[in-house]
Design goal:
The structure is a single chain. 47% of the residues lie in helices and 21% in strands. The longest helix is centred in the middle third of the chain and has 81 residues. The chain is flat, with a radius of gyration of 45 Å. The protein starts with a helix and ends in a 5-residue tail after the last strand. The model has no long low-confidence stretch (mean pLDDT 81).
């Protein structure tokens, strides 16, 4: 490796090291209480202080009330009747009890003090983290400049070496001019052969491989496209089958699973070769064996797998979802007394679906009682509570 290459290599290593340190710093981050958490802590502290003010006010009020009751009892000791003294004594005891309870509550409050929220340490840590991040970003930027300078130095050296080589080869160029012209002439003749073939075919351009034209990008009167004028499907390459699965169907199919593909030519036991999600649906591709299928041919993909055993299963067409798609429900046959006697009606019931495929749905235990009839088909719209006339199939 020459000096220019070594310089570029060292510059690359410095840039990678600076970037790695920056990425690690960004991944480590710093734990900061969110604004919502800070507001919640402040509210909790203010509520604690307000509780203390309320308890203090209650103690003060009960104390004043007790003092008032003591003064009243003292004044009745001289002039009051026994009944008044007894009533005043009871009021004083009640007031004293209220003051003691309020004082005890206030004492418990003071025994569990709450510190005022302080996030200054977190803010200081965040500023230090940001300062280090800015410094690391500066290191990455400087290393990038160093990489550019090293590359520029290397390019300058290469240009000087090329000029030196040109000067050294100038003497021999005259001898090689004739050979160069011969090579150019050979290339032009080869190019001419291509146009001569088109001319002899009266302007018809044919594909070099067997296949079918799937798209033509040329339109009369418009500018010729920069890309391919036509797109051809090479018949020598095996075909592939492509389909889309929804979220429910995806639960039963995974990459590499064995599947059965039904085509007009018959069944094929193949495997899922490619799968990717596209906008909530899953694109599945199965490669066909050579000589199987045809361009534009349709088919059916099947995947069979044994599920768990469920005690309660119903046909899939008997299961419905509400307008939001959040809850599932069924209709069962109910029986009630009508104007003309006993009649049947449709009763809607929300159920929990444990599993489901295209044919059946498994319900949680207890969704149906023994002997209950589920409505699986109807010849007109039904609604919850609507009278029905049902038939067993």
């Amino acid at each position: 490796m020459d000096a220019a290459g070594r310089g570029i290599g060292r510059a690359d290593a410095a840039l990678q090291d600076a970037d790695a340190k920056l990425q690690k710093h960004l991944e480590d981050g710093v734990d900061i209480t969110s604004q919502e958490g800070r507001e919640a802590a402040s509210r909790e502290y203010e509520e604690w202080k307000q509780r203390g003010r309320e308890l203090e006010a209650t103690v003060s009020g009960n104390w004043a009330s007790m003092q008032e009751k003591e003064e009243r009892l003292s004044s009745l000791q001289e002039n009051g009747s026994e009944e008044e003294k007894e009533a005043a004594q009871k009021e004083l005891e009640a007031a004293r009890d209220g003051w003691q309870k309020a004082q005890a509550a206030y004492d418990r409050y003071q025994e569990n003090p709450m510190a005022e929220p302080d996030f200054s340490a977190e803010d200081a840590a965040k500023k230090a983290w940001e300062a280090e991040r800015d410094a690391l970003e500066g290191n990455v930027r400087d290393a990038g400049y160093g990489r550019e300078d090293a590359a520029l130095t290397g390019e300058t050296g290469i240009r000087e070496a090329e000029r030196n080589k040109e000067d050294a080869d100038a003497a021999s160029q005259a001898d090689s001019t004739l050979e160069i012209y011969r090579m150019e002439l050979k290339g032009l003749k080869k190019e001419l052969e291509k146009y001569r073939a088109v001319y002899q075919a009266e302007g018809k351009v044919v594909s070099e491989v067997e296949g079918a034209i799937t798209k033509v990008n040329v339109t009369a009167g418009e500018r010729t496209t920069d890309g391919a004028a036509m797109v051809c499907a090479d018949s020598e390459i095996p075909y592939q089958f492509e389909t889309l699965l929804d979220k429910e169907q995806k639960k039963y199919v995974s990459l590499g699973d064995e599947v059965t593909l039904k085509l007009a030519q018959g069944k094929e036991e193949l495997s899922v070769d490619y799968m990717e999600e596209e906008g909530g649906v899953y694109r599945v591709i199965v490669y066909l064996p050579e000589g199987t299928g045809g361009l534009g041919m349709s088919g059916t993909l099947q995947r069979s797998a044994a599920s768990e055993s469920y005690r309660c299963c119903i046909p899939a067409n008997a299961l419905y979802s509400d307008s939001n798609g959040n809850r599932s429900y069924i209709y069962v046959v109910g029986e009630r007394e009508g104007i003309l006697g006993k009649e049947y009606y449709a009763q809607m019931r929300y159920v929990e679906v444990l599993d489901q495929n295209d044919s059946f749905a498994a319900l949680a235990d207890g969704s149906l009682a023994s002997g209950e009839q589920v409505i699986t088909a109807y010849d007109k719209e039904i609604a919850n509570g609507a009278a029905i006339r049902y038939e067993d199939f």
